Q: What sequence folds into this?
């Protein structure tokens, strides 16, 4: 604490605290107990404070873990609900889907008949349209 | 094939390490927390608790070769520094580092400062620094160790400068520490 303007007082106090923290950690148990006594502090009280803080942190951690698990469970439920809403025909292989499109081609618009070049997403879109229009049911059977 | 150990303790290993801390080690950590908690809005036990929670949450990991006692000492220093930085910084945003493991913001008093308030805080630090020095006007040896520690001088060089052996140096440091603790029971930083 020479008052050197290049050194911020906050950093200086931090360094001072560091040096003393190091002493507290490295001194022998006997020296530590003697210091507590000299300082009028009670080992039991300090230990109780520390153990209580650990228990509280542990509980908060479990709460955080529970929170994360709950979020993950909610996400799984949502994914399951989306999957359950998905028509069964969309779970078939691409070739099966194309066969259904071809089979029902005469009942589709011209634009929808080019299923051979369509991507799986396009094929799925067409099948969903066909379900909506009542051409096929959710399992892909012609109505 | 032998299983490779990671460089840091797992959460479960760290939790086990916490359980093996002796009463004296726990008390040492609370004493250390007292040194670092000033200016954070947390009392020593709270600072210790927040640090443990961060470690259990995986935000701060204990290197395998570092004793958990030393790790927690360093982590408390770092957590306290981050909280103080978060509080003094503008724009007024809550740092991610001040968030609990479940995403809730850490419940600390909102003492974030404007530029003007920051200047005042700097003046507070300067005043605290001077006040600490003034505590030792009648104890030259203690005053010298405080000045050297604050300037980041090593214990060895300070001991050599003052011509003290290890034991005498430890006694001077302890005397200084007790006096500052009594003068500033709320922590050393303003």
A:
């Amino acid at each position: 604490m020479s008052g050197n303007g290049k050194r911020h007082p906050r950093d200086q106090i931090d360094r001072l605290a560091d040096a003393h923290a190091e002493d507290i950690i490295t001194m022998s148990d006997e020296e530590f107990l003697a210091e507590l006594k000299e300082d009028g502090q009670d080992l039991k009280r300090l230990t109780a404070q520390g153990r209580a803080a650990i228990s509280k942190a542990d509980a908060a951690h479990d709460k955080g873990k529970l929170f994360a698990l709950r979020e993950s469970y909610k996400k799984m439920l949502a994914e399951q609900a989306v999957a359950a809403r998905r028509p069964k025909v969309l779970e078939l292989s691409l070739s099966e889907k194309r066969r259904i499109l071809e089979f029902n081609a005469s009942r589709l618009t011209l634009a929808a008949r080019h299923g051979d070049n369509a991507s799986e997403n396009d094929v799925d879109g067409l099948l969903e349209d066909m379900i909506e229009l009542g051409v096929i049911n959710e399992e892909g059977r012609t109505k | 094939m032998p299983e490779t150990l990671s460089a840091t303790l797992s959460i479960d290993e760290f939790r086990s390490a916490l359980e093996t801390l002796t009463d004296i080690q726990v008390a040492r950590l609370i004493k250390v927390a007292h040194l670092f908690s000033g200016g954070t809005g947390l009392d020593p036990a709270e600072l210790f608790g927040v640090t443990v929670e961060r470690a259990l949450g995986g935000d701060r990991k204990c290197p395998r070769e570092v004793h958990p006692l030393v790790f927690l000492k360093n982590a408390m220093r770092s957590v306290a520094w981050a909280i103080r930085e978060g509080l003094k910084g503008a724009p007024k945003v809550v740092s991610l580092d001040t968030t609990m493991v479940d995403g809730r913001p850490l419940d600390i008093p909102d003492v974030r400062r404007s530029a003007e308030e920051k200047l005042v805080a700097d003046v507070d630090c300067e005043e605290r620094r001077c006040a600490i020095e003034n505590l030792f006007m009648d104890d030259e040896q203690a005053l010298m160790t405080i000045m050297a520690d604050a300037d980041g001088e090593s214990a060895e060089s300070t001991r050599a400068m003052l011509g003290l052996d290890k034991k005498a140096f430890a006694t001077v440091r302890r005397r200084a520490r007790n006096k500052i603790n009594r003068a500033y029971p709320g922590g050393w930083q303003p």
Observations:
- Chain A touches chain B through 51 residues (CB under 8 Å).
